[in-house]
Amino acid sequence: MPEQGNHDPRTPHAPGSGDHVPMTAEEIDAANLGAAPKLNDRVTLAAYDPRWPRVFEREADRIGSALEDLRHTIEHVGSTSVPGLTAKPVIDILLTVPDPGAESAYVPALEAVGYTLAIREPDWYEHRVLRRQDLAPGASSANLHVFPYDCPETARMLLFRDWLRAHDEDRDLYARTKTELAAAEWEYLQNYADAKTGVVEGILRRAGSAAAPSDTP
């Protein structure tokens, strides 16, 4: 899962594979359109805010109206999508389209409603990130992650979200991990995200095992 501004650890491998490789400063900088914003500080987390789902719904309506002529899906993902979970007050939105590489099909329409293309990763499922600022009250900004349909990463993001929504013990484990790591200083937000990988992959292994069909008749 991409952080690149806000979200959880990213990996092009199968959930729980153990093959995650943290992004280098060069890779972070190359993915950003313009200089990659540095954090050089601690990560500020907020207690869960019940306004976050409403902010998502408002943005989903905005995005859906802008893309009414393009086949797409919109989901609330990331920590703000899990009731009771501490998070940065940044709304993560998952948008799937037929081809994220065909930017002319969706970027101009989203720019017209206040989103700005910030990240382009053609070698990683054609991932794009657009951002919108000043979403108060309730959230400071939104990160719109664009992936193709049936992408392994979208399945991973939704599995992680749905598992945390249904399993308080793993939600609380993830919250403790985030709080502990947020107390350290990080050059990039992505470095903080990469540091969560071990815990995230463990949660995904449990979620994947639970979702797998049983061989027992």
Query: What does the average pLDDT come to?
Result: 88
Strand order of the largest sheet: 1-2-5-4-3
Distance between the termini: 35 Å
Number of strands: 5
Individual helix count: 7
Overall radius of gyration: 17 Å
Largest sheet: 5 strands, mixed
Shape: globular
| Share of β-strand residues | 15-25%
Low-confidence stretches: 1-18
Helical content band? 25-40%
Tell me briefly what this model is.
This protein is α+β, with helices and mostly antiparallel strands.
Based on the model shown, name its key terms:
alpha+beta; 217 residues
Question: How would you describe this protein?
Answer:
The protein is α+β, with helices and mostly antiparallel strands. The protein is 36% helix and 16% strand. A five-stranded mixed sheet has the order 1-2-5-4-3, with helices on both faces. A hairpin with a 7-residue loop joins strand 4 and strand 5. Helix 4 packs across helix 5 and helix 4 packs across helix 7. The N and C termini lie far apart (35 Å).
Q: How do the strands and helices of this protein lay out in sequence?
A:
Elements: H1 25-31, H2 52-66, E1 73-77, E2 90-97, H3 107-111, E3 116-121, E4 127-133, E5 141-148, H4 152-166, H5 168-182, H6 189-195, H7 197-211
Parallel strand pairs: 2-5
Antiparallel strand pairs: 1-2, 3-4, 4-5
Helix pairs in contact: 4-5, 4-7
